[in-house]
Every structure is written in C-alpha cells, then in structure tokens.
Automatic annotation (TrEMBL):
Transmembrane portions of the chain: none
Keywords: Signal
Basic and acidic residues: bias regions: 331-340
Residue segments, region Disordered: 319-340
Source species: Metarhizium brunneum
SUPFAM superfamilies: Aromatic compound dioxygenase (SSF49482)
Keyword DNA repair: no
Domain Intradiol ring-cleavage dioxygenases intervals: 113-250
Signal peptide: 1-18
Protein name as annotated: Intradiol ring-cleavage dioxygenases domain-containing protein
Amino acid sequence: MHTFSLLSLILACRLAAGHPGEDHAAELKARGEFLQNHVTNLDHCAQELEASGVMKRGIQRRLHMVNRLREKRGLEPQRDDKQSRDWGAMEASHASLFKTTASCVLAPEEMVGPYYVAGESVRSNIVETQQGIPMEIDVQFIDATTCRPVEGKYVDVWQANSTGVYGGVINRENGNGPADPNNLKKTFLRGVQKTDNDGVVKFSTLFPGHYAGRTIHIHVMLHPNARPYPNGTIIDTTAAYVGQMYFDQDLIYSVENLHPYAQNPNPLTLNDQDFILRQDLWQGGNPYMQYKMIGNRLEDGILAWLSYGINPAKRSRVTPVATRKGNLPRETTDMQRNEM
C-alpha cells in the first residue's frame, strides 16, 4: 500500500492544478483502495447480460437511435443487407458495432469536482441555446454484484460547453471565469433522467469542450433514493455514485478543429495526461465512451454509449457547489417538458 499511497499523493498534487484550493489526497487514496478491492469493470457480467437479453436490446436500441437521428438529419437509414428481422442476421451486421465493450464501476469515492450543482431539472434535452457537435448519449447502469440493470434511479449529467464553460458556477478555472456573473443562473448542459427497465438513461447534448487541467469528459452521478420535487427538479446529496465519461483522443482532435471548439482559449489536456482517467485505467476500468458518427461528417452528430457498474453496498455523500431553487430552466421548451 505504500506505493499506492505515494502514487495517490502525486496524483493529488497534479490535480490541484485543475481544481485549485481542493485537497484531493484523501479522495484519491479512498477511490484507489476501492478500485483495488472491488471489480472495476463489467466483464464478469457479459454472459448474464447476453442471456437476459439486455445486450441484445442495447444493440437494437442504439441502431434505432442512429436511424432516428439519420432520418432527422435527412440521411438514409442504415439497413441490414438482407432486410431481415431475424436476430442472427442483425447480429452479423450490427452486433460488433453497437455491442457495449467499455465499462467502468462507479467508485463512491470519485471526486465530484467543483462544478456539481444540485437541483437540476428532469429533462432529456440539455442543449438549450449552446452550439457545437450534436451528441446523443446512452448510459447504462448495472448492479456489479448481481449483473442486473439498475432500474428506476435518477441520474445527473453535467458538462462544459464547446469553449470550456460550465453553466451555473462562477470559478476562475471555469472557461471564462468571473467574466460572466450571469453564468450563475444558467442551466445549459445539465439535466437528470430516470433509468428504464434496462438501467438506461439517454440525453441529447453536445460534444463537450475542455477547460484547464482536465481532459474532455462528462460527469455522471446516480442517486439511489432521489425523488423529484413538484417543480421537476432533483436534490439528493445524501448517497450517490459518481463518475466521468471520456472520449477517444483522435475524436477529440477532430472535434477541436471545428467551430466553435477551435475558439476555446484553454490549454488542451490529453487523455494520457489526465490523472483521474489514468487511475481508472490503471485499475482495470474502461471509462471511454464507444461512439458512432451519425453521418459522414461530425456536424451530423454522434451517438456515444457506455455501461457503468455500481456496488449497492457502497455509497457516499456529495457536496454541491450550489443548489438551485425555482422552476424549470427558462429555456426548457414545451417539447422538452413532454419528454420528461
């Protein structure tokens, strides 16, 4: 454990550059010890998920999402060559593409970071007026002890916009820092959804931008006991599972060359320079989102997916940087309300 403790302290010092003023040494040590003593991915659940039909439904769901998005953008749907409804034919042409191969177990000790805001709205479309590469995310939660989907639980996601700014917070490391005091009231790229029978939540969002000290990522948190308030928001910090979703470095390079990402003034941290990500990888997790482009251009959009495992016996308290009060975000449309 001495080597691991030293490693945790080194990582904490490096992370301080990304989140100044925070002491991560204890969190990193606790998270590392959790990952050392628990399964860190869902490889052991592969047979159970296939036998129960969860894997098959996941492949079908992602294929349906791609075709829905292609239709929305005026592109031809992707079809099986034999135009067959038989599972074997579909498996041959699509299973290898849409099968979930990436997974990571959410450690309760994962750092929630300085940008978590409690009280976000239950909604699937979190884009509002932000600009960037359209992205649909499909995130699945599996009980790592039983290999069964985690049903009926609320999940928070939050991320930076294309130029590295998180809505809802004022922080000198947050993209434009204190330059926009009205940012405190903004709700873009934040939202909550409830897991379905297969433990899945889906969000319409944008490919995230980067901020100083961290590689590109999306935050995710599952609340085991949350219930929505009458105004459609979730506030629950007593017990949670926290994690982050990452992206292929070549995909990041491609997106970063496009407008408005190219206007991001923050230095880009690479995946292999990000010490939270490296700790997950060192311990056997694979928190990279699998993805497929909707069309031939990134501007047509991306579908990205990932599976997370949780251990119900392990939970943690989280501390938000702020808690929202009031009703639904001002920019939530009637269509988005109907999606809730």
